[in-house]
From TrEMBL, chains A, B:
The lineage of its organism: Bacteria, Bacillati, Actinomycetota, Actinomycetes, Jiangellales. This is Mo-co oxidoreductase dimerisation domain-containing protein. PANTHER family: SULFITE OXIDASE, MITOCHONDRIAL, SULFITE REDUCTASE. GO terms for biological process: sulfur compound metabolic process. Residues 263-357 form the Moybdenum cofactor oxidoreductase dimerisation domain. The keyword Lyase does not apply. It comes from Jiangella alba. Residues 55-226 form the Oxidoreductase molybdopterin-binding domain. Its cofactor is Mo-molybdopterin. InterPro entries: Ig_E-set, MoCF_OxRdtse_dimer, Mopterin_OxRdtase_euk, OxRdtase_Mopterin-bd_dom, OxRdtase_Mopterin-bd_sf. GO terms for molecular function: heme binding; molybdenum ion binding; molybdopterin cofactor binding; sulfite oxidase activity.
């Protein structure tokens, strides 16, 4: 036995074949939650239905005492109050956020961590002030390369005690749609979504959108913190350094038709013409096509796409299906304008991140 | 193989010894969610942190077209619009709701269903109009015994297709604190909490607080629907008719001290004097005492209780602990004024309902 940190933090591992979900994973599943798939009906996800993943605890921050520190390789370090931020120009962006671990629990073998199936997603209207102008006011040094964002949430992970911190390449941080957001869906940011202020980086997986933001640190070398260098890596083995997780790969989800069974969530519907609907998104480029299979990926037909409401918000789709009695496996897959297409089979990786293989939805037609 | 209903609905069962949580249970855990335990800090649970259990799908109801039908053994059947309800006298009650299945996944053997650990609870301010006055206006027949409440949510459960429906004894339905609620925490009822109108029955487990309410049916015989006669029974075997689940048994929860490990949720804190805090509630009577054990139930000492803010809302408690280095199992138990006390060991039942054995929280002190 080593330190306290080793004692409470098990090493990363992959489940044995057939191993069920453990109580540890269940504890995560009970506190974090996905989007109930019927909530795909909403263009903008109502508060409380948007997916939620908290690494440590939701901190209790006093908005009156909160300050955002802008430091590091800048000409004029800043310390901003909430009133300071709110006095700045305001914009609203509709953005789809997805957890990088979405789909993890469907992988075989299963990486042991937050056990998401398909539902770690949501779309909200985020309001706040552009980060780029705050950085301009601070005066970013020409030698800067990364920006580190620090949250107020603290805990241990794989033996490393830390305050949640993520680095972002400077060019991404300077995009004009990256926000210091203090409102969600036109109301105050809820505690669990990062109150009083969080970062929004449209197009990137959730880990980049640092909640409970307290620090913005401009760096002259690449950020080497845990959440960039150890976690959120697409890697094949424990000693593979892997590739960093960045933008959201395309995904389509089907709004489940018919009615569910409580326990299995299998859907039951009547035969006849069924309008299947759903959402599709990508953080790389607009979604260009959605295809639907009603025979578990044997054949695919194109769905009709709704408008793209914002560059990084999901778009709706619809597909008319003549449902015959029997059991069917429905699947949907999206392709974006940058050429990324959802795989039908898993592209396994050890952390189960950035995995976008096509949803499988069982329906029974009577 | 029998009917479609049999095909999609597995019979109720208990997990094998050592059997992990299945994908079916995980699908429930990913869409339903508990209160992240650090949110015990709030007197009133912010929206989105309150526990949530949806039997089937969250329905999409149009408030403009919504009607509440009051029918059955009444002199004057009613059909009320949302405006009709809102024009009636309004009251607000602070109420702690808990799922009857809370604690289920900690039982051994584990009943296979929504796998709650300790966190299926929340406290909200519910506003609406008293049901009793609506029933008085309809004129309840002297022969009435039960009232059946029908939601708009539909699905299958254990082979039975149904619209969610629960019966309540007439005497309970006529209590002056039973509400037709259309607001939560001073805002509109969110879709997932029953919009536009839900029932609130202070003191009872969650299954009684019918969401998406559309029908109130006064009955001259005991309600014999699935959710009263088959589900929500304290029973020891498949053929035991069991006893109905009614009011919430007392429970105390500890707000986890220190910081968590991401994966295990074990808490790490520094040695010294630690103020432990938490909440305790009962649906039978006010909480009269909370005791804390820092040695896994070996010895117990009383906590100091905060005020009881409302008859059926949780009350806070605090306990000063001198924490010495090492690993400790913290437990808390509540007793109410009606003499119910939380057991330290499980009181197993086949559905894993109304089970309130004391929380166990692992902390490592350094």
């Amino acid at each position: 036995m080593g330190t306290v940190e080793d004692w409470v933090s098990a090493p990363a591992r992959v489940a044995e074949p057939g191993e069920g979900v453990s109580v540890d994973e269940l504890r995560l599943a009970a506190r974090n939650h996905g989007l109930p798939l019927e909530a795909l009906r909403y263009d903008v996800t109502p508060a409380g239905l948007h997916y939620l993943l908290t690494h440590y605890d939701i901190p209790a921050l006093d908005p009156a005492g909160w300050r955002l520190t802008v430091s590091g390789a800048v000409a004029r370090p800043l310390s901003l109050s909430l009133d300071d931020l709110r006095a700045r120009p305001r914009v609203t962006h509709r953005v789809t956020l997805e957890c990088a671990g979405n789909g993890r629990a469907r992988l075989s073998p299963r990486p042991v961590s937050q056990p998401w199936l398909d539902e770690a997603v949501g779309t909200a209207e985020w309001s706040g002030t552009p980060l780029a102008a705050v950085l301009a006011e601070a005066g970013v040094a020409p030698s800067a390369v990364d920006v580190a964002f620090t949250g107020a949430d603290r805990g241990l992970e794989r033996g490393v005690e830390q305050t949640y911190q993520r680095g972002l390449p400077l060019a991404e941080a300077l995009r004009d749609d990256v926000l210091l957001a203090d409102e969600m869906n036109g109301g105050p940011l809820p505690p669990q979504h990062g109150a009083p202020v969080r970062l929004i980086v449209p197009g990137w997986y959730g880990m980049a959108h640092v909640k409970w933001l307290v620090g913005v640190d401009v760096l002259e070398s690449a950020f080497d913190g845990f959440q960039n260098v150890t976690a959120y890596r697409v890697k094949q083995s424990a000693d593979d350094p892997g590739e960093p997780v960045t933008r959201i790969l395309p995904r389509a989800l089907i709004q489940p038709p018919g009615v569910p069974d409580f326990q299995s969530r299998v859907r039951v519907l009547d035969s006849g013409v069924v309008e299947l609907t759903g959402r599709a998104w990508s953080g790389w480029a607009p979604v260009e096509s959605v295809e639907v299979s009603t025979d578990d990926g044997g054949t695919w037909r194109p769905a009709e796409l709704g408008p793209q409401p914002a560059p990084y918000a999901w778009r709706s789709w619809r597909f008319e299906w003549t449902a015959h009695p029997g059991r069917h496996e429905l699947r949907a897959r999206a392709r974006d304008a940058a050429g990324h297409e959802q795989p039908v089979d898993q592209a396994w990786n050890r952390q189960g991140v950035a995995n976008n293989h096509a949803q499988q939805l069982t329906v029974v037609v009577r």
